[in-house]
Amino acid sequence: MSADRVPALEVTGLTHGFGGRRALDGCSFTVPEGAVTALVGRNGAGKSTLMRAAAGLMQPDGGAVRVFGNPAGDATLTRIGYVAQQPSLYPMLTVAQTLALGHRLNPRWDTAYAHRLADNAAMPTRARVGALAPGHRTRLALIMALAKRPGLLLLDEPLAPLDPVARAEVTGILMADVADHGTTVLLSSHVIADIEGVCDHVVVMTGGQVRLATEVAPALDQHLVVVGAGNELDALGDTEIVTARTAGRDVTALVRAAEPLPDGVLAWHRPTLEELLLGYLRVAGPESPRKVTT
Ligand SMILES: Nc1ncnc2c1ncn2[C@@H]1O[C@H](COP(=O)(O)OP(=O)(O)OP(=O)(O)O)[C@@H](O)[C@H]1O
User: Fold this and answer.
1) Is residue 170 a contact partner of residue 161, using CB atoms and an 8 Å limit?
2) Ligand 1 atom closest to 41 (CA)
3) Which of 63, 129, 235, 265 is paired with 210 by a 20 to 30 Å CA distance?
4) Would you state the pLDDT for residue 168?
5) CA angle 170, 173, 177 (to 5 degrees)
6) ABC transporter domain location, by residue (predicted)?
7) Which CATH superfamily is domain 9-217 in?
8) Confidence (pLDDT) at 5
């Protein structure tokens, strides 16, 4: 993305609480146009709340969400395809009636694409939505989101109800949509294997806060996994430790460092995506990233 292009999604200082409990706590990040961004966080991290705010479906207590430069709300709905964790479809309608409704409600609806996706998913078009298996219901919700030809797709754990074959198929469909139409995707998940090789950007949330928002490739080059025994990690000096875990005598730490460590006491390697994400997912308190003393 060139620096002067408006991001597909811009979240600034987003804050929201439920009954005095903070679900979102000052979240800020951008999703570049045409990118696939994974929103990663453990259960209760705030992903769904953030997705709903991004879709313009709830009014946050504070902060701002802009979609292609415009405040999220009614005016941006036509540019967004949103699939909630529990997709909101009409259970009494058949699949065919649901697709026909999509056609009536969405000015940019692509009928041929909708039918192709339904055929690929072996969707039983005469079945009532309420009688569909969870995997088919999720795929129907995805078809409804894709066929409206959105600029921004917000997918809240879309792969969770799917079997491994369907997961691979849906991932392929998303990648093809991104390649063919330049669709921007924000995809939430807590399954790292589902996003590996799919996303080029990641946002990691814990406790309602954004811990990391970055392009994947440079982030891997800007971190190291360091392993040492006991106080050997003192050799890191002022290097920022994101998180550290002790197993037996050894401490394994994810540290922020672009330069390799000199040969010596500490063993190190560049993190895999899984190591990078797990390191940030373990960040707990509001004061983190933190220095760890061993
Ligand atoms: N409607 C609601 N009423 C009360 N609390 C809520 C509501 N929605 C979310 N929360 C709370 O807000 C916090 C964030 O929830 P959210 O569903 O956004 O997290 P999540 O990262 O999507 O979790 P999961 O991966 O389990 O779906 C949690 O503590 C949750 O219990």
Assistant:
1) no
2) 21
3) 235
4) 87
5) 140
6) 9-232
7) P-loop containing nucleotide triphosphate hydrolases (3.40.50.300)
8) 81
139/149 Cα distance (integer angstroms): 16
Whether the per-residue pLDDT at 121 is higher than 80: the answer is yes
In the chain, what are the domain boundaries?
A: 9-217, 222-281
102-129 mean pLDDT = 93
The angle at the Cα of 190, spanning 185 to 192, to the nearest 5 degrees, equals 80
Q: Which atom of ligand 1 is nearest to the CA of 208?
A: 14
Give the pLDDT of residue 266. 84
Alpha-carbon span 284 to 41, nearest angstrom? 11
Judged against a pLDDT cut of 70, whether residue 3 lies above it is answered with no
Name 9's Cβ contacts closer than 8 Å, sequence gap at least 6: 30, 31, 54, 65, 66, 67, 152, 184, 186
Is residue 133 within 8 A of residue 121, CB to CB? The reply is no
Determine the distance separating the centroid of ligand 1 and the alpha carbon of 23, expressed in angstroms.
Answer: 7
What pLDDT does 111 receive?
95
ipTM of predicted complex:
0.97
The DSSP secondary-structure symbol of 129 reads: G
* Residue 31, both tokens: 């999703």
Span from the CA of 54 to the centroid of ligand 1 (angstroms): 15
Give the tens place of pLDDT for each residue, 13-63: 999 999 888 999 999 999 999 999 999 999 899 999 999 999 999 999 999
